[in-house]
Structure formats: structure tokens, C-alpha cells
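Risk register update: the risk of archive-format incompatibility is retired. Evidence:
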Amino acid sequence: MPGSGRDSCLATLISGDKTVFDEVYREFKVPIFTVIYRITRDRMLAEDVLHDVFVKLYKAPPSSQIKNPRAWLFRMARNLAIDSVRKPGSSALPEDMADNRAPMEDTVIDAADVETALRRLTREESEIVSLHLNAGLKFREIAEITNTPLGTVLWRYRKAIGALRDHLNGGLS
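Archived output:
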């Protein structure tokens, strides 16, 4: 996860070598999509935002002066996801009708339970959990990306994990 070869591929892309773009895409598409989906809560919108993230990355990679390209990439994804949710008409359907999960997901009970539990979190809590668990970012990086004090990030994460645990244990903990 963090600190692996994907960071060096991202660094190679930043240096101007676009031949590694496919590798960067393969390595980052799932964690970035997950973060975007946790913010938008709409599969099709999340796919559109994911596409925008990688188009922007290809056309204009960050400068080599960016200290943490991985955090920069997730910040860009987060900002684009938030912008897409703020656009007028972005959530015209009621939340239950806007659920665009693939049918296969519904066949896996555990995944459905986790998804239901995550939907009970606030957007901020869900975003922090996703950035930490799915994107592998450190809490300091999450605080920087979300422009939130580190203590608040830690508190929201602990609160969210407790709520997830309670929900997944049937409210018994």
C-alpha cells in the first residue's frame, strides 16, 4: 500500500514520463473511486469524477515541487467529488433511487452490511474512513487534504469506527 512502487510510478509521471500513466491508473483507480463514491454516494457520478481526475492528471500532472504527490492526487479527487455534489441538480433523485450499485454487490451479504453501515455515517466520517482505509493515507495527510485539524480527524475516525462496529454487531457492543 503506502510507500510501494505506485508512489515511484506517480513520481515518474510527474517527471514527465507519461508511459507509466496506465500503471498509475491501475494502482490508484480503486482507492480513488472509493473515496469519490463515499463523498458522492452515487456510482455513476463517482465514475464521472474518477474519469475527470485521471484526465486532469494526464493533461497536467502536478509539478515536481509537490512534496506528497499521492496526497495531492487524493486532494484533487476529493475536491472534484465535492464540487460535483455541490452542482445544482447533482442529486435530483431521492437517495434510495440514486443507488447505482452493481447487482453483484447485493449478493455479498457482508459487503451489503458494510455499505449500509457506511451510509449511516456522516459524509465527513465516511470520507475520513475511506481516505484512511481505502486510500491508505495517514491521519496527518487526511487532515491536510480535508483542511481539518488533526484532532478533529482522529475524533471523527474513532467515532465512525465505533458507529460501524455497533451497526455491524447489531447494535450490541
